[in-house]
Amino acid sequence: xxxxxxxxxxxxxxxxxxxxxxxxxxxxxILVIYAIIVEQDVGKLLLAGFIPxxxxxxxxxxxxxxxxxxxxxxxxxxxxxxxxxxFKALPPALPIFFVVFxxxxxxxxxxxxxxxxxxxxxxxxGAFVVFCMAAYxxxxxxxxxxxxxxxxxxxxxxxxxIWGVLIYVRFLGFADLPGFFADWVTSLEQDPMxxxxxxxxxxxxxxxxxxxxxxxxxxxxxxxxAVMALNGGEAVSAADSxxxxxGPMCAVWFGILVVKMxxxxxxxxxxxxxxxxxxxxxxxxxVQDVFRGVTPFFIADAVTIALLIAFPWIVLWLPSLA
Length: 322
What we know:
The chain is built from 15 helices and no strands. By secondary structure, it is an all-alpha fold. The protein has one domain.
């Protein structure tokens, strides 16, 4: 983008903000962690992330086009690339889409009937497909060994975190802190939707000082029961609920909202991890440049979150079909 002539801050903001979309679009590690913490269906949560993820990308795209058209120095028109050249550039990206397609079809069985496997088995199938692709492209033994070691390190880290969270949740249960907080939240004399908005705003503040996964691990064992209580409980029907959805659907909806807030925190100063990563790629970029570049995307994320709250069917339509 810099080579073509895009504004440095604008280009850095686009890259940093675009990197947040991976949190919603499957396969999403944060959604899996959320499902483990709150003991909900991983498959439905991953399915629920599709439309909000695409919707977020469209909002970003509209913002980028609007800014490029309004401020001429942000991005000059790109020329010199025919449609033939553009189509030639697509094949290297197809294997990624193929892996996602295989996993989604395996888990959800679009032909009707029972699913062909669990999300865990779908992930294993995806890993095998990636291994076959790597072997076809000439992966050496040393590279395969490094991949196995990195996989082992990552698996140990994830399981250690999960064990720690389960112990943490057990101690919270002994102290009855989730129940106390849920009782206090439901006793507030205000609209439950307003309370939910305040909870999401609290996540926005926490995200300024904590990374996304740590924030979810520390807060969800307390906040999740309170949100479910606001809706009327985990077994409530849509007709009797405060948010107009059943307990399981409320868990999915709140999960997408929380993960979207985690996305928001990835570009929020002063911790915004994506901004530091982008700034570290080039010597001529400072963290301040990246934070200035992502500022318009704060507004885009706020609009997206507001629409997901106002129109829950954006999140719940696909899970309701599963």
